[in-house]
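for the recovery benchmark. tokens below, seq after
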């Protein structure tokens, strides 16, 4: 019952009079970010948290308004956790560079091309002296190109970058949405990523946790009922029947 919040609906007036309204205040994003950065091992947390919160504030004000843009607490938390992982993996890198890389990895894949220069300009204004060390994806790009050519497709650099961005997003998120017009390459993007990760794993090019043999299942949730999708309990017999999604997850988990 969160009036004015996206996806929530107002209570009808005849029901609203039965409840006492409660006032809530917006939490201090900076204080939360500062504490989380300290807990993730950052030493300059106070300064970095101020800049990070300012970046998200400016982004929400200056970038275009899109349904899939999120500059709220969930986005802040996921970036902080991601920054902690990068900090532990690269303990000698400057802390501000690590945080910028986390913010870019988490946000750049979902921005429209017109918003990218604005976001980069905001980052440059807040961190004018920091240079970001790019991750070496040259081998990964070569394998993407190889998989595209095997399918008879042209290895466009922009598309290959999108495959890499999808990979980077999967590293930090367990749920991802690919958004775009029909024929823009959404299906090919995840299929090529699955092929590349499988190829690299099977050929021992990379053996880290992120690179696994990938299988995928395609479902059309609108073609079936909610019970057939997620599973349901028979009210008469109290027996549980798996849906397609739960069945796939059970098989994937080895159950």
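predicted aa per position
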């Amino acid at each position: 019952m969160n009036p004015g919040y996206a996806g929530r609906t107002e209570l009808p007036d005849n029901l609203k009079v039965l409840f006492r309204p409660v006032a809530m205040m917006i939490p201090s994003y900076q204080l939360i970010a500062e504490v989380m950065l300290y807990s993730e091992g950052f030493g300059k947390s106070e300064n970095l948290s101020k800049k990070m919160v300012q970046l998200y504030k400016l982004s929400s004000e200056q970038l275009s308004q899109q349904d899939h843009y999120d500059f709220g607490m969930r986005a802040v938390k996921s970036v902080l956790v991601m920054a902690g992982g990068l900090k532990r993996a690269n303990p000698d890198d400057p802390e501000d560079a690590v945080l910028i890389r986390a913010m870019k990895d988490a946000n750049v894949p979902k921005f429209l091309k017109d918003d990218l220069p604005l976001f980069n300009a905001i980052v440059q204004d807040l961190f004018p002296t920091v240079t970001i060390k790019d991750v070496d994806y040259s081998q990964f790009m070569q394998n993407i190109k190889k998989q595209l050519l095997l399918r008879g497709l042209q290895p466009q650099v922009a598309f290959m970058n999108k495959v890499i961005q999808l990979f980077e997003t999967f590293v930090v998120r367990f749920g991802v949405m690919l958004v775009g017009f029909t024929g823009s390459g959404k299906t090919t993007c995840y299929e090529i990523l699955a092929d590349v990760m499988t190829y690299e794993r099977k050929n021992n090019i990379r053996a880290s946790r992120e690179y696994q043999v990938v299988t995928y299942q395609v479902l059309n949730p609108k073609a079936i009922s909610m019970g057939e999708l997620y599973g349901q309990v028979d009210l008469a017999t109290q027996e549980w029947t798996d849906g397609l999604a739960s069945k796939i997850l059970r098989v994937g988990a080895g159950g």
